[in-house]
């Protein structure tokens, strides 16, 4: 067993459950965006694993781009409420259907600031796909258009989600033991 696995209290979403849900989301997105100019926008770093799997599950032509948007810092486990675009998109959004791909919708603060910024760039639409959502922590009025799983208010890692830049490579979503982040 890997040393990272020992830091996990319990698994919330298994690798098999993630794979099945990504396939379902990819099929739905493919139906919904058929015949449109779909641009998948990955919010780095957390969504990179989900984005890679999702884009392979989408069966229609699509383009991809990446942003780095942050309201967290370092080992902080709480949103600072400050949102900044660290790396902006390369693509022109004019006339495109933008689907933001996120790892988790937590407080919603970051995305509630980001989505209006993207709307100003003349896309046909801006929607949100997230593999995880914590509705109990929502501070902004925002809900995903495509959702993998709702999870309880616990510190989750794996499948792209991290604690201080580690645990992203776990193939499942697990709850980190409190002694790890309270040390």
List the helices and strands and how they pair.
Layout: H1 3-6, E1 8-13, H2 15-32, E2 38-44, H3 48-57, E3 62-70, E4 84-87, E5 97-105, H4 109-119, E6 125-133, E7 146-150, E8 156-157, E9 173-176, H5 178-181
Parallel strand pairs: 2-3, 2-5, 5-6, 6-7
Antiparallel strand pairs: 1-9, 3-4, 8-9
Helix pairs in contact: 2-3
Structure report:
The protein is α/β, with parallel strands linked by helices and 183 residues long. The chain has one domain: Rossmann fold, CATH 3.40.50. It is built from five helices and nine strands, in the order H-E-H-E-H-E-E-E-H-E-E-E-E-H. It has helices spanning 3-6, 15-32, 48-57, 109-119, 178-181; strands at residues 8-13, 38-44, 62-70, 84-87, 97-105, 125-133, 146-150, 156-157, 173-176. The strands form two sheets. The chain has a six-stranded mixed β-sheet. Strand 5 (97-105), helix 4 and strand 6 form a beta-alpha-beta unit. Helix 2 crosses helix 3 (48-57). The radius of gyration is 16 Å and the shape is globular. The two termini are 23 Å apart. The mean pLDDT is 92.
Keywords:
5 helices; Rossmann fold; 183 residues; 9 strands
Quick take:
The protein has 183 residues and is of the alpha/beta class. 26% of the residues lie in helices and 30% in strands.
The amount of beta strand, in percent, is: 25-35%
Distance between the termini: 23 Å
At CATH level 2, the architecture is 3-Layer(aba) Sandwich
| Chain-averaged pLDDT | 92
Based on CA inertia axes, which overall geometry fits?
globular
Largest sheet: 6 strands, mixed
